[in-house]
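Case study 2.
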Amino acid sequence: MKDVHLKSDSAVLTFILPNPSKSPPEAINFMAKHGRGLICLAIVAERLDELGIEPMVPESGDRFKSAFAVSVDA
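Prediction:
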């Protein structure tokens, strides 16, 4: 499934994969090649803690309350 919408001053293209842990590399490559932006992953706070991934900022000040963590290369 994909969804295209506007958030603030930028377009957001969202792909929802049924089981991200088993996503074929071709799907990720397609997003990187054609989306030409950040590939974001929804993840629970407990898993971020397990992986030692810190928040990018202590608390987001934007109206959408985006909670981004530091970037990782996977």
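Residues 43-74 form one domain.
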